[in-house]
Write a structure and sequence with these properties.
The protein is of the alpha/beta class and about 425 residues long. The protein contains 17 helices and ten strands.
Length: about 425
């Protein structure tokens, strides 16, 4: 992993890039090493999440929970009132008795610039404050920032499992955490959330079928990272949606990214129109439209698999041979790579690396999750239209030898994919 000069990196980040407003005046505990950051916006179930954290097992160090109730300068009175209610209820909760090792900080951040206000900025504000406090406690090297959402449920071993995981994996810059959506209040919403979760799992497993080394879940409510990795990655972005994907795809290429499967986060299945994409929007969209939930066609992944299988051999080729090899790939991927000037990029990577390991690492620092997403969008727009999730997921199981024959039942397909991820 490339993390070096931990304190220097954190000091530079806090001075130059962090949210400038100090939110908490009190000194942190000297044993503070875990901070849970929860953005909240019109969250009626916030207390449920806070109660589950209060009932968690002792993780071996002090923990702070940073709740960032946030609102734009242009939000309506209904939102202001909802946030006011959440703030007052959460602040009262924070004053109730709880374990000595656990502290709740409830912050109501108002009048955020309309251009940037949203979940990304809220996470950034909370994570930056958490980084300040972990740094002030002297636990830069052991500090962990944990992202959770205000409508999630968790298991009692959640905090301890995360703490133990990073102790066992000292070189890991970050991790994703098992997730499973909560049961929905009616069959329509249940059908929609099952289809969306199946889409998420299909996408990751399709990339793993392609041998893409950065194929991990990037879900904001179930991820964590080291404090020093957070600073080195430039902190959280201010995106109104998809902030989790873009953030983790700066952490993952550092190397050593891991997964936690010994505990589970249970996100809410509720519909939402607050963000342009993500769980809530996907559920709302499915409820409003007839027809199947669609995802990237399975045909999109076979050309990608062919390309990634070629990557080790490209290192031994001349510039002319690289161009010829890329042109000989299936048309969808060869055209996409041509648009990236991939032959020239790969040649530069070869010239700058002298060992297979350094070549592979440099290659995937160029061909990251961002590039894969662009590829899938390119293929969707120019070659293969999206197809029903049950068709795509069933094909993947069949090609992988996990199941035989076509299965169009989304709930049973989801069960199979959860089983692959050890989610019961």
């Amino acid at each position: 992993m490339l993390i070096k000069e931990y304190n220097k990196n954190i000091d530079i980040y806090l001075k130059r890039y962090a949210w400038p407003t100090l939110l908490i005046q009190s000194n942190p505990a000297t044993n503070l090493s875990l901070s849970v950051i929860i953005p909240a916006f019109e969250e009626p179930d916030l207390l449920k999440t806070l109660i589950e954290l209060r009932e968690n097992e002792y993780p071996g160090s002090d923990v702070e929970v940073m709740v960032i109730i946030n609102q734009s300068e242009v939000c309506n009175e209904k939102t202001r009132e909802a946030n006011r209610e959440s703030f007052e209820a959460a602040r009262q909760f924070a004053n109730e008795p709880c374990p000595d090792w656990l502290k709740f900080h409830i912050q109501w951040v108002k009048e955020l610039p309309a251009k940037h206000a949203g979940v990304g900025l809220a996470r950034k504000i909370g994570m930056d404050e958490a980084l300040r406090r972990i740094s002030a406690s002297g636990n830069d090297k052991n500090g962990i920032l944990i992202c959770l959402d205000a409508d999630c449920l968790i298991e009692k071993n959640y905090l301890k499992t995360i703490a133990d995981h990073f102790r066992r994996n000292p070189q890991s810059p970050g991790c994703s955490i098992n997730f499973k959506h909560q049961p929905a209040e009616n069959s329509q919403i249940q059908s929609a959330i099952d289809a969306y979760e199946l889409h998420l799992r299909y996408h990751v497993h399709a990339l793993r079928y392609c041998r893409f080394p950065h194929a991990y879940y990037t879900i904001g409510s179930s991820m964590a990272c080291r404090a020093e990795a957070y600073a080195q990655a430039g902190g959280m972005n201010r995106r109104k949606a998809g902030e989790d994907f873009y953030f983790l795809h700066k952490i993952i290429p550092m190397g050593g990214f891991t997964e936690i499967r010994e505990t589970t986060v249970y996100p809410s299945p509720r519909p939402s129109h607050r963000v342009p994409f993500g769980t809530g929007r996907a559920v709302s969209k499915k409820l409003m439209q007839d027809g199947p939930f669609k995802t990237y066609s399975w045909k999109s992944f076979e050309p990608l698999r062919r390309f990634l299988a070629l990557v080790p051999d490209l290192r031994q080729m001349t510039a002319v041979e690289i161009s010829e090899a890329l042109d000989a790939l299936p048309e969808p991927v060869s055209k996409f790579l041509n648009n990236l000037d991939a032959d020239q990029q790969i040649q530069r990577i070869i010239e700058k690396t002298n060992r297979p390991e350094s070549y592979t690492k440099a290659f995937y620092q160029w061909f990251t999750g961002f590039a894969v997403l662009k590829y899938l969008h390119f293929i969707r727009d120019h070659f293969y239209e999206e197809e029903p999730i049950e068709v795509a997921a069933s094909t993947l199981l069949e090609v992988s030898g996990i199941a035989s024959g076509k299965n169009t039942d989304i709930s049973s397909l989801l069960f199979s994919f959860r089983n692959m991820d050890n989610v019961l």
